[in-house]
Each structure stands twice: as C-alpha cells, then as structure tokens.
Design brief:
Number of domains: 1
Largest sheet: 4 strands, antiparallel
Strand content: 25-35%
Distance between the termini: 17 Å
Strand order of the largest sheet: 2-5-4-3
Number of helices: 4
Radius of gyration: 16 Å
Shape: globular
Order of helices and strands: EHEHHEEEHE
Number of strands: 6
Amino acid sequence: MAVIAVNKRQYDEMEPYRNSNKVWKLQSNHDTQTLDSVAEAREYLDQAGLDWNILAKEGGTDFIQRLKSKCTFGRGGGADYFTDNSRDTSIYIYVYVQNSKNEIIVTFSYHSLTTDGLHGGQAIEWLKLKAGQNLKAMLPKGTFDYNFS
C-alpha cells in the first residue's frame, strides 16, 4: 500500500491562511488512464510531464523517468513530485502506477497553489492532503492511503 504522510503541524498552519481573504488560487487535476502497453504508458507520462510543465524544473525529468521505470519493470507503486522554489506558487503531484498482464493504469493527482506570500512547506503539506484525499477515492480500496505525522 502506498501512503502519503502529511505533517499535521504544517498543514494546520496553512488552514487559517486559506480561510482569510488573502490570495488563494488552487488549480487541480486528477485522472486515471488505462494504457495498453509499456510504450503507450511511457508516451503518456512524457506528455504528462509537458502538461504539468515540470520537465525544465529541478527533479522533473527524474520524476518522469522514475514513473516510466515503474511501467517498464512491472513494479508499479507511487511516486511524488513537489516544488515550492518560486516566491508564491507550490506544486504537488502524486502518481500511482498499477501493472497487470494486459494493461498499465496510471492515476494522478496534480495540485498547484498560488498565494501572496512564502508558505513553502506548509503549502506542500496542504496540497499533499488534498492529493491523498483524491487518490484514496480514485484507487481500489487497500491500494492507497494518507495519514498525519
């Protein structure tokens, strides 16, 4: 089972800001794609990296390569990517790959949060929880969960 661990203290620090009248622009996208071959899954993940605009960012290409290896070697499982190095935008992506004999299923949750200040770790923890809630609802029971640390 894959698990996202969310730092409760940092998550809680972000909640008052979210409820204030300050800048809070959340963009999210989540989906599941069933692909017929490793080649199709690798192509899908390449396109996802472009769509998420992470390939030029630190660690973005490595993240996509890690996901592609989960497809190629049949290991499956989850991986996440995050960045909060810009002044006001944080990105969190979690992708879960399931392998079977005849198909590869790629499920992802993408979140981007723009605020009017530096929130770094707090924003990432808030986004982790949102991704965890989405993925838990999307994936088969017993495959994925999230918890507070």
